[in-house]
Design brief:
Structural class: mainly alpha
Distance between the termini: 18 Å
Helix content: 55-70%
Number of helices: 5
Order of helices and strands: HHHHH
CATH topology: Four Helix Bundle (Hemerythrin (Met), subunit A)
């Protein structure tokens, strides 16, 4: 309840509604990025399971489609425009990384990693631009994304 009260002091009612409606998109995009990062770990380790039809990637693609569709239906307020732009950028770059994973060749992991890093950065920007979106740190992630951020909130 305290979180909702603090939120209401920082944003107008329409923006608070946008936040509540779009938290799932944000969380789903984080999940997709994490699943793709996990698949990259398998691929970088040379696992024969790191195939484009791996169940983890199939689940990530489905979740991505759902979150991307919901994100495109969102109607951000003026106060939420910056946040929404970050989410759109995250969806675009994470989507690109997913498409690259579909046709990844041995040693071509950079074509996936670069847009995935950009997607993480956009998610961090979204978390910083409005209250109510939990920022996560990938600083010590096993996949070695190496993107510096502050402590997880």
């Amino acid at each position: 309840m305290a979180d909702i009260e603090a939120l209401s002091r920082q944003v107008d009612d329409a923006t608070a509604a946008y936040i509540l409606e779009n938290q799932r998109c944000f969380e789903d995009l984080k999940q997709v990025a994490s699943q793709l990062a996990g698949w990259l770990v398998l691929a970088a380790a040379g696992s024969k399971e790191a195939l484009p039809d791996h169940p983890m990637l199939l689940a990530a693609r489905e979740l991505f489609r759902e979150s991307d569709d919901a994100l495109r239906r969102a109607r951000p307020t003026g106060q939420a425009q910056r946040h929404h732009a970050y989410l759109l950028r995250a969806a675009k770059t994470i989507g690109l990384a997913l498409r690259q994973a579909e046709c990844a060749q041995d040693g071509a992991l950079d074509s996936i990693l670069a847009p995935l890093r950009n997607g993480y950065a956009a998610l961090e920007g979204a978390a910083d631009s409005l209250p109510g979106f939990e920022k996560i740190s990938y600083e010590r992630a096993c996949c070695g994304l190496g993107h510096k951020s502050g402590p997880a909130q």
